[in-house]
């Protein structure tokens, strides 16, 4: 197969992957709606305009399952690379899941995500942009919500990373190279935030965050570190400090924030991800990752 043939085939595989994910995730979400006890548990006690502790789990779990099934199907049918390897090995590598230090990278990602988000929010607070108040009605209730949000954001992190830094990224990277694959998937990652109500600048910042996650993939060779970072980054903003995450507020957060500083410092109602300080933080993280040698992705 010539160069143009490989380009076209990689794009076709990506389109098929997206179609399968959309169809399967829609079917799975419709199935979960048939079980009232699931919707009653995940609905929460906050207004529908807020993110609730367990609210995203049915949809995110459905999408995660759809992503893995789509990747498994295409790995079994399409064998254009990794010839001679068993299906299980090809699946793990094409999903960018191959990692002998998986647990270590997930934990390190969580610690880095927690630290970076805390540093960003703390710096904005030090500049007078945020004022915090206790929001949890009781200590026990606050701990329960923190644990529930931890489960939720681990699933969210795994879903979004698997969708954009898994099979899709692998196929583009295999033919077009890492940088093209990272730019394309990052643009799409930012774009999918728009239908959910995220403001335009918040979606742009999400796309930039997606590129940073690609750099973490480049540095470690698997999605383990990005999944941990992504989950902890969202959890720290939404569940711990109660600031808006990509324009979305979280019900049941431990703290409640009062925004008093200018938009370029605080991000306003879009949250700290929309602040100029967050952009600078992402630049620093990218610089640190570029200083380290990369790992081989899926090969």
Shape: globular
The percent range for strand residues is: under 5%
- Count every helix, treating DSSP H or I runs of 4 or more residues as helices: 12
Strand order of the largest sheet: 1-2
Supply the number of structural domains. 1
Low-confidence segments, given as residue ranges, are 45-49
Residue share in helices?
A: 55-70%
The termini sit apart by 20 Å
SSE pattern: HHHHHEHHHHHEHH
Number of strands: 2
Radius of gyration: 19 Å
Category by helix and strand content: mainly alpha
- The overall pLDDT average reads 85
Taking the sheet with the most strands, its summary is:
2 strands, antiparallel
Question: Explain this structure to me?
Answer:
With 299 residues, this protein is mainly α. It has one domain (3-290). It has 12 helices and 2 strands; from the N terminus they run αααααβαααααβαα. The chain has helices at residues 3-32, 36-43, 57-77, 87-94, 102-126, 139-165, 167-176, 178-191, 200-220, 224-241, 263-266, 276-290, and strands at residues 130-134, 255-259. The chain has a two-stranded antiparallel ribbon with strand order 1-2. Helix 9 runs parallel beside helix 12 (276-290). It is globular, with a radius of gyration of 19 Å. Residues 45-49 have low confidence and may be disordered.
């Amino acid at each position: 197969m010539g160069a143009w043939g490989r380009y076209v085939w990689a794009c076709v595989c990506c389109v098929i992957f997206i179609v399968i994910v959309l169809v399967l995730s829609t079917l799975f979400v419709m199935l979960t709606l048939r079980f009232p006890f699931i919707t009653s548990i995940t609905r929460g006690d906050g207004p529908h305009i807020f993110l609730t502790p367990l609210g995203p789990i049915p949809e995110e779990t459905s999408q995660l399952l759809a992503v893995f099934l789509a990747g498994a199907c295409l790995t079994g049918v399409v064998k254009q690379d990794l010839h001679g390897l068993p299906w299980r090995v090809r699946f793990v590598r094409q999903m960018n899941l191959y990692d002998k230090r998986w647990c270590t990278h997930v934990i390190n990602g969580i610690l880095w995500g927690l630290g970076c988000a805390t540093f960003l929010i703390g710096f904005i607070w030090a500049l007078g942009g945020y004022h915090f108040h206790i929001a949890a009605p009781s200590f026990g209730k606050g701990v329960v919500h923190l644990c529930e949000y931890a489960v939720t954001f681990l699933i969210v992190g795994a879903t979004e990373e698997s969708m954009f830094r898994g099979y899709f990224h692998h196929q583009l990277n295999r033919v077009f190279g890492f940088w093209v694959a990272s730019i394309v998937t990052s643009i799409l990652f930012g774009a999918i935030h728009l239908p959910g109500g995220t403001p335009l600048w918040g979606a742009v910042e999400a796309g930039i965050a997606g590129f940073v996650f690609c750099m973490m993939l480049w540095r470690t060779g698997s999605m383990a570190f990005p999944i941990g970072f992504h989950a902890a980054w969202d959890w720290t903003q939404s569940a711990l400090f109660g600031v808006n995450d990509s324009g979305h507020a979280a019900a049941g957060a431990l703290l409640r924030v009062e925004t008093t500083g200018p938009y370029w410092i605080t991000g306003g109602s879009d949250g700290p991800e929309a602040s100029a300080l967050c952009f600078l933080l992402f630049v620093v993280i990218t610089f640190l990752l570029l200083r380290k040698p990369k790992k081989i992705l899926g090969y």
